[in-house]
Write a structure and sequence with these properties.
mainly beta
Length: 313
Amino acid sequence: MIEIINPAWFSIVVDRGRCSYADVGVPGSAALDQFAYNLLNYLVGNETGAPVFEVMGNEFSISLNSEMTCAITGAQVTAYIDNKPITPWVSFTAHKGSTLQVKEVLEGFRYYVGFSGLMEVDRVIGSYSTNLECRFGGFRGRPLIKGDRIVLKEPKVIGERFVPGEVVPFMEPPHVLRILQGPESHYFTPETIHRLFEKKEHSWHIVSSKSNRTGIRLEGKPLLFKKGMDKSIISEGILPGTIQIPGDGLPILTLNERTIGGYARLGIVAKVDQDRLAHLKPKDKVLFQLIGVDEAERLWQQKVELFYRTLPQ
């Protein structure tokens, strides 16, 4: 049994998401940082696809009533098990009656907490992830609250596992996001596009506090549409990482809770950098860097190879 003492600012159950249902309007709702999610399941000895907690905020605290292996990945945090410090990205043993507490987030934004064993939560359309808008999946289709109790099936203790320090991603701002050109990039003036990719102060955008798992809104100098150009498109399917530009010219980075959009698509964040979107927090600085398809594929392959080198052979 896992009992929530303090859910911090916001915490939900997630997994790798609902795949292949976007055509009927069902978003993936996956863990925003898939690199951290997948390595978390390795650290606690679970199969790929097991549910974990995705958490934002300080003072997250839970009680555990079985002996088990646990781990925390994602954002760098100060954390304790029974008041003894633990290291993120390294597994540790919890005993019956232990209390796990994440005191403070030091770098990044979202962190992931996992356990050896399978949480008894709702699996809907092939996924344990919480869909907040439709209120299904995860724990009763909603964020966790104080007093929630979740049964953990077959908890166990495995040998210590760790992720090498050089593999743990850097999450501090400023965030440089590599992007691919979008189908409506020609909607904007050449001056606007040139300014967007300059590595100068006026190129930065700032993460707005009006951001959530649906999308990250950016503030800064608006992008200018060409004269006479429509400021919207006929709604089409969109992928996570799509950069949409509404009529006010301020970018929205689409995350994992939308399948369709009607704003001009300036570009899409390269897959290699999409996990970083989980760690963009209000007031962080963001800069875009334009790359080509070949470069995006090369960088993604490097990341995949890094992941598999981390696992035991």
